[in-house]
Amino acid sequence: MKPSLPLSVSSSAPHTALNRVQAQRLHLAAQGLLNKPKSRAKPADVVAAVTRMRLLQIDSIHVVARSPYLVLHSRLGDYDPPWLEDALDAGRIAECWAHEACFVPAADLALHQAWRMQRARHWSSKHADRMHREHRDGMDTLLARIRDNGAARAADFESETRGGGGWWSWKPEKRWLEAWFALGELMVTRRERFQRVYDLTERVLAKLDPPMDRSLLALDHEALRRRFILDSVRALGIAQARWIADYYRLKPAVTDKELAPLVADGELLMAQVADWKVPAYVHRDHAALLTQAASGQLRATHTTLLSPFDPVVWDRARAEALFGFEYTIECYVPAPKRRYGYYVLPILHRGQLVGRLDAKAHRREGMFEVKALFLEPEVEPTTRLLEEVAGAIRASAQWHGTPKVKIARSRPASVAAALRALLR
Q: At a CB cut-off of 8 Å and minimum separation 6, what does 353 contact?
């Protein structure tokens, strides 16, 4: 018997029944993580992956690999990391504030710019406004230099003074560049060894491929919110209403009542997942996937390591509801309070999150260190699971240029020895 639905959702709308495994597979199919890559990655696959996810969160921690590179490796397999910078330099993707600081498809940039102009100001804009009031002469001089001399990095500016607070104690010029980026006067035109290179927004927009659709800038707040809601559901594959706002940091929260017109218009399809007391939503573009999921035709074959900032796990409530996987990004947790480690990578195995490992890539020594590996309590370490997890660790280590693998300990303890044997 299906749980009763909220009164705000039309009971006359058809509902596809799914179990939780089927919902997991629909989500992973939408994210590009259901199956192994069918062929060797090409540069265009980087842009296609960003387009599929709608955004790729940027984080600079590189204990293993910086998060955007690792998210792409989980989906593409062995690829050349500079392809990401090449796509940015070519204008196929752009940087902006979305979920957080993110790469987004060039075709979506106008939506983000329109949203930034209309919504309540982002925290970075508020800091930037204050920065400009307090350092107007320096900021204006810096902007004029870029206008006259071309794109620049923070490293291009010499400064003996360091910031005494504010944005992570950066030198003044770095904080001023970031302030102009937040205020929309500068954009990131390319990256050099992951360092931002800033240029005038007008010059970055001129190279976008495809060119900016300026008609999108005229969309009102309601139309933009509708677009971001639909894009979030498409990227997630299947979603409860309460998960949707987080994808683009929308405020206020999305509700079933707000989604009812999108269901009525045929933009969203409804599903009921076993044990969920609320309805689920699927974008109409995934109608075929929904049918395949419901009939058990979606098979999960991929085993890989995920970034802590992967869309699959960044929403703790969603990861727990979909996969029964409790996850916290512990690099921001004081060391004595960490349960698993500083930079812990979830392990995806054939459609399920089966465990996690605390890793570090020692590039000089060519060693990939697994400080600890933890399987979920209910996961049985079968021969196939161990072989495929070992394969995922080996693939990640080789891609990092750290082919020697060291596994220190595991839970259960027998797993470490079994993996060491498989990785010899």
A: 312, 313, 319, 323, 325, 327, 346, 347, 376
